[in-house]
Amino acid sequence: MWHQYRLQLKPRHRGFHLVTDEILAHCPAIREMRVGLMHVFIQHTSASLTLNENADPTVRSDFEAWFNRAVPEDEPYYQHTLEGSDDLPAHIKSSLLGNSLSLPISNGRPNLGTWQGIYLCEHRDHGGARTVVVTLHGE
User: Fold this and answer.
1) Which residues on adjacent β-strands are paired with residue 100?
2) Opening angle at CA 127, ends 104 and 98, nearest 5
3) Which PROSITE patterns does this chain map to (predicted)?
4) Within-domain flag for 63
5) Which domain holds residue 93?
6) Rg, Å, the chain Cα set
7) In sequence order, what are the residues at sequence separation of 6 or more whose Cβ sits closer than 8 angstroms to the Cβ of residue 22?
8) Is residue 129 domain-resident?
9) What is the pLDDT along the chain (139 residues), one digit of tens a residue?
């Protein structure tokens, strides 16, 4: 059986944010699936998704620090600057991390590792609400 949900994540400041529970709250059909796949896609070019550590918040702040150093703002060779100094770096960071995740479903939940959670990676200072499409397929 197929199910698809389009949801808006609440606006967040720049950084890496755990959104696993927020996403699952909008996908009630997953609770009925014994086995399947969950595809999560973000419809934006300046935010991304990744799967990583869900216990220690310093991992998320370290991610933010590393990405800001790896892809700095205000480089003189950037041409795409009309939307602010954080815009082009946000596009680059989004391309590095990606716009989707495919996760296994087991017994009504994503079958994640003990310390894994879904991150919304907000790369803009004020990105606003982010739209995510979740597609479930399973039995």
Assistant:
1) 41
2) 35
3) UPF0047
4) yes
5) 2-72+83-138
6) 16
7) 9, 10
8) yes
9) 999 999 999 999 999 999 999 999 999 999 999 999 999 999 999 999 999 999 999 999 999 999 999 999 999 999 999 999 999 999 999 999 999 999 999 999 999 999 999 999 999 999 999 999 999 999 9
Specify if 78 maps to a domain. Answer: no
The count of structural domains within the chain is: 1
C-alpha span between 66 and 87 (Å, rounded): 17
CA distance linking residue 34 with residue 32, whole number of Å: 7
Question: Which bin fits 84, alpha (ψ -120 to 50), beta or left (φ > 0)?
Answer: left
Residue 61: which of 14, 9, 10 has the closest Cα?
Answer: 14
Asked whether 16 and 60 are in contact (CB, 8 A), the reply is: yes
Long-range contacts of 99-103 (CB under 8 A, 24+ apart): 99/41, 99/42, 99/44, 99/48, 99/49, 100/39, 100/40, 100/41, 100/42, 100/49, 101/39, 101/40, 101/49, 101/50, 101/51, 102/37, 102/38, 102/39, 102/40, 103/37, 103/38, 103/39, 103/40, 103/51
Residue 106 lies in a domain: yes
Token digits for 22? 């927020």
